[in-house]
Amino acid sequence: MTVPLLDPAAAPAGEPGSVPRRDKTLRRLLRDPVAVTCLALLALIALASVCAPLLTSHDPYRSNLSDALAPISADHPLGGDGVGRDILARLLYGARTSMLGTVLAAAIALAIGVPAGLLAGYYRGWFDGIAGWVSNLVMSIPAIILLLVVLGSVGQSTYLAMGVFGVLMAPGVFRLVRGSVNAVREELYVDAARVSGLPDARIVRRHVLPVIQAPVIILAAQMLGVGILIQSGLEFLGLGSASQPSWGSMLNDAFGNIYTEPLLLVWPGLAIAITVTASALLGNSLTDVLVNGGKRRTRRGDTPAAGDAPAEDDGVPASVPLGPLTGEELLVVEDLRVSYPKNTGTGSSTVVDGVSLTVRRGEVLGLVGESGSGKSQTAFSVLGLLPSTARITAGALVFDGTDLGTAGAGARGGVRGRRIAYVPQEPMSNLDPSFRIGSQLVEPMRRHLGLRAGEAREKALALLDRVGIADPARVYAAYPHQISGGMAQRVLIAAAISCDPDLLIADEPTTALDVTVQAEVLDLMRSLQKERDMGMILVTHDFGVVADICDRVSVMQNGRIVESAPADELFADPRHPYTRMLLESTLEDSEPRRPPGDDATTSPIEQGADA
Ligand SMILES: Nc1ncnc2c1ncn2[C@@H]1O[C@H](COP(=O)(O)OP(=O)(O)OP(=O)(O)O)[C@@H](O)[C@H]1O
Predict the structure, then answer these.
(1) CA 67 / ligand 1 centre spacing (Å)
(2) Among 64, 136, 220, 240, which one is least packed by beta carbons within 10 Å?
(3) Cα–Cα distance between 217 and 284 in angstroms, integer?
(4) What angle do CA 365, 369, 371 make, to 5 degrees?
(5) Residue 513 to residue 490: CA distance in whole angstroms
(6) Lowest-confidence range among 74-83, 234-243, 331-340?
(7) What are the ABC transporter domain coordinates in residue numbering (predicted)?
(8) Closest ligand 1 atom to the C-alpha of 425?
């Protein structure tokens, strides 16, 4: 059996499926007017602080009592403070202290949190235990008390205060990184990289760092804003360095003159507000670009609605459109879109984005793609099994002449369950444990086909026999827990074909089964499909299965079909880079299937039945 191990970092840069390139991210960021404004403001403040000696001739430290509370004038463009120092000069030089202090805190938090999170998340073990314990301890210490203790015992220094604050922020970074690394290290492609002998440093560089870089950048932008606020707060309380100009100390000075010259509060207050707001908004824009591929907030504050042109800036082109119809199609799906409201309450996320496909009678269509690409959602749309929160639209959703989108409940019910049948992924959880197999098989036949109890029982026994169960009567009388997974899947296949459907939709029907049973179940499905000339949609992530039984294949990525072709053509000449990546990442040297009969996990009743 071949096992596809999908590695998003394996695709060439810039091709679909690859990690977004840095220049692409920057381009997206620069297309967001809020991000551009925030970046420009922050850059301007940083530049002004660096060029302070060029922008003012005043010394920010020198006080001239004759200029105390001086009004705005050509010599003092923003006036003088309570002891006659030029406010503009203090604002410009103060930006250095404020920004440097904040950058220092963020740098310390990142320098501690990122490597510790990487090590703890990747290697776990004793380091994870100790680092987790230390991080919990640090987080439980009230920050302001620790700062007061340190500054009280070592002396008042803005940079020392911000250094300590950086240490206090490090556990937040540690937890974020550890959580992200923990999630990615469970991915199949990381296992594959380990198995193939890649050194840890390379695995971390190729597979782990790309995953953590977005949340870390976003967190860093947010830390800048928080750092400015904390630093200003400390200086306002008189805990920073008295000798350095800073926005917080300016607020402190201004507070002393609040009744005589309230305008003094405005300048440092404005500087702090602009910097903090710009950092926070930049963090939001970075979240949109890095986490949501720039799609999170359109002008309507929503992801593209059904009918909008699919976004192409995530590197995935629009879904392959429907080819010319021949009139022989059993199922026609055109421009299918499925979206769900976001948990945040605003906007929605699109999980199927303009999918078009057809299935003819007697044809097996494989729907392949990595996990989360929208295969099951597409299949469930046809089956009418989507949850009520799903918003589904389609240009066409037509089964053998019946428009499933507009047909009444009665007409749809006559099609779904009877003419379109379903074989699920998890056989055991699709059988009710409190009813015997027989009664679960008989009920749909009695309802859909109007059979009498005796007829339905006979047909059920014949079906159990047809799907390869050696002792149908015994299985008919058994409860689900008395049969094995392979046998349960045979029962569900028998149930699916019991009403003689025209279309069978199978969602990863062999994933939960032992490899030996997988091959047998696939053979069974293929022979039933041929024998009854059924159309079939086979949802799978396994190209081995596709090669085994599919006539045509549609490859899905990010909710869209990126390539559709006859199976042999697709294997011989995959056109789309994502298809090539999927095929190339298919491991050929995984364990071979064991011969039938070598199944050690077969249940007692199955052994009895098969004997
Ligand atoms: N009820 C739901 N609400 C919100 N999002 C959902 C819901 N059900 C599925 N999704 C999302 O839809 C996307 C596509 O899911 P789908 O199950 O179709 O993927 P798939 O390709 O079949 O993957 P797998 O092979 O893992 O089953 C996923 O990102 C999933 O998180």
Answers:
(1) 68
(2) 136
(3) 11
(4) 130
(5) 11
(6) 234-243
(7) 331-583
(8) 27
Q: Exposed, middle or buried by CB within 10 Å (0-12, 13-18, 19+), for 312?
A: exposed
Contact (CB, 8 A) for 338 and 390: yes
Given a cut of 60, whether residue 303 has pLDDT beyond it is no
Cβ of 381 below 6 Å from ligand 1:
no
- Pocket lining: 374 vs ligand 1, CB cutoff 6 Å: yes
- Rounded to the nearest integer, the mean pLDDT of the chain is 80
What's the CA gap between 125 and 38, in Å, rounded?
42
The number of beta carbons lying within 10 Å of the beta carbon of residue 35 is: 21
| d(C-alpha 207, C-alpha 397), whole Å | 39
Amino acid 327: pLDDT: 67
Cα–Cα distance measured from residue 290 to residue 278, given in angstroms and rounded to the nearest whole number: 18
Q: Which atom of ligand 1 is nearest to the CA of 541?
A: 25
Report the alpha-carbon distance of residue 193 to residue 80 in Å, rounded: 64
Cα dihedral 419, 424, 428, 434 sign: negative
Is it the case that residue 568 has pLDDT exceeding 90?
Answer: no
The answer to whether the CB of 244 is under 6 A from ligand 1 is: no
Whether 288 has a pLDDT exceeding 50, the answer reads yes
CB atoms within 10 A of CB 450: 9
- Asked whether the predicted pLDDT for residue 184 surpasses 80, the reply is no
| Separation CA 53–CA 575 (nearest Å) | 60
Residues whose CB is less than 8 angstroms from the CB of residue 485 and which lie 6 or more positions away in sequence, other chains included: 427, 428, 512, 513, 514, 517, 601
Shortest-distance atom of ligand 1 to CA 338:
12
Cβ of 541 below 6 Å from ligand 1: yes
3-state secondary structure of 366: strand
Report d(CA 4, CA 152) in Å as an integer: 60
- How far is residue 209's CA from residue 192's CA, in Å, rounded to a whole number? 17
Q: Please give the Cα distance from 376 to 425 (Å, whole number).
A: 10
The domains of the chain, with CATH numbers, are 26-62+84-292 (1.10.3720.10), 329-419+503-585 (3.40.50.300), 428-500 (no CATH)
